Structure formats: structure tokens, C-alpha cells
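Re: your question about Beta-carotene 15,15'-monooxygenase

S., sorry for the slow reply, the queue was backed up all week. Below is exactly what I fed in.
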Amino acid sequence: MIQQFRSINPLNIILLIGIAILLRIGIFIDMPQQISFEFMEPFARLLLDIPLESAFSPLANILVALSILIIQALIFNRIINSYGLLGKPTFLPALLYVTAGSLLAPFLLLSPTLICNFLILWMIEKFLSVYKRAEVSSVMFDLGMLVALGTLIYFPFISMLPLMWISLIIFRPFNWREWIAVIIGFITIFFFLAVFYFWNDSLDKFYEIWLPLATRFPTNLRINLYDSLVLIPVVIILVLGFFQLQKNFFRSVVQLRKSFQLLFFMFIIGLASFYLKQNLVLYHFLLCAPPAAALMAYYFLYANTRWLYESLYFILFGSIIYFQLF
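Result:
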């Protein structure tokens, strides 16, 4: 399977769709009776209230989520190949994105984080374009607005704001205008939101938006250890990917090294920002899918022992299906 996706082949699109469906076989067999879906945060519904709970049946919800994931995988694959992030054209980023986006049962349904991943992909493309630009203030302004839009959909997305400055540290010499442009872009969206709240005599609710920022980092987490066993092969692949990347790190071009550093920080921020949501929701970790998929794709592209990398992906693939069914 991995060998097939190492090269660019139109047949891979059909195979990708088939794999994405197989990775959802458990939820198709045991379909939930009812699925709730919140498109935007409660504070943003005054601006745009879309009653999507009644618009989608459980089957439609799963199929729409599946379609979105496949589209995102193809976009992600194009971005990675366009900027030469893996060093050679391949279809592995799409395969690993679909796989990472199917790890846990909540990933298989429509969720705010699934929608936000469109913004994540857009941000990755803009980040990668920063390296060769002479002036990036306009890009950073756009990125600030993207973070604000993502925050309207899913509040913990606000944690991506520091990533803008991390990207400037990694890719650019210091320029205060570029740092300020991020804040201006972010504030622009929320300024208009504040005006809208003011017109509707609800300005007091606007202040409540920021209360989760004062939430203390939890010291006790209740996680089903049985369900998390599916993450074991993922961790193994990520560790092998890290060592593979480290092996070639200083032989790689500067842009590739900087890009993977940025993806590492994106992964860490996405992982740690779950506490900004009042109750832990597992679909939050879907924000980590793009950077994780990039590192896993790097391992599978440069691994030399075929039986090992094919077996690892088969174990991961089988584990996802097994934990859905049992």
C-alpha cells in the first residue's frame, strides 16, 4: 500500500477514497441514532445561527465529514508537493492525512475542528510562502484574520495566534510591522463582532468570550485508555519519522528544515490547547492531523525496509478498524 502511494498516480485518488471508506466501516455498521453538530461557538451564533442539527441525518453527517476529509487530504497533498516539503512528489501526505483524520470515532463526524482544518491548511500554505517573500505584512494580517475566523468556529483555535510570531522567528528577521500586522488582522474580525454585539445590546456577552483564557490547565484528565491504544502505532511511526528527519536534517535545504520546525510547533500548540474548551472533546485533536501526517509521510517516503513500513501501516490501518468494531 505504501509503495503504491509513494508515487503520483491518478489511480491513487480512487484508492484513497476506498481507504477512507474502509476506515469508517465501524461507524457505518453501528451508526449513531442521532448526531449533534455545532458549526460555530455559542458567542458567534448571534452573528450567524445555522441550525445544522436538523439539516443532516447521521448518514449524511458521516458522508459530508468523509467528503470534507478527502478534499482536505488532496489540498494538503498539493501544498506539500508544491513547496517540496518531502523532497520529491508523492501521494503519501494525502494517505496519511486521511489515516490520521480517522484515528478516533469523534474524528469521523462533522465537527468544528474538521471545518477549522481548512483554515489550518490555508495557514500552512501561507506560512510556507513567507520564506521567499520580500514583504510579508499583508500575509501576517491575513493570517491574523484566519485565526480570528477559526476562533469564531472553535474557540481553542485562538491558540494558533502565537504560532504566527513563531513563524516569523523561524522564517524572518525581526520586523515590528510584521508582528503588529498579526494583531491588527485578528482584532479586525473581533472589532466588527463587538460592534455587532453593541448594536444588539449584548455587549456584556462579548466580554464572556474571553473567559476560557483564564481557565487553569487541568491536572487530571479522564481518558479511556482502551480507546487510546490505537495511538500506539501512531506514536511509533511519529518517533521513527522524527529519527528519519533528524538523520537527513542537516542535509536538507534550509526551507525544509524551517518548515518542519514550524509544523512541530503547530502540533504542540494544537495538542496543548484542549484546555481552552470547557469539556474535553476528542475531536479537538483533529487539529494535530496535518503536522502529524506530514511527519508520518516523511518517514514512509524515506524508510528503506519495505516489510517494516508496510507492516506498520497495516497495523495502524487494522487498529483503527478494530477499535471501531470492538
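The CA atoms of residues 54 and 270 lie 30 Å apart. The two ends are 25 Å apart (CA to CA).

Happy to talk it through on Thursday.
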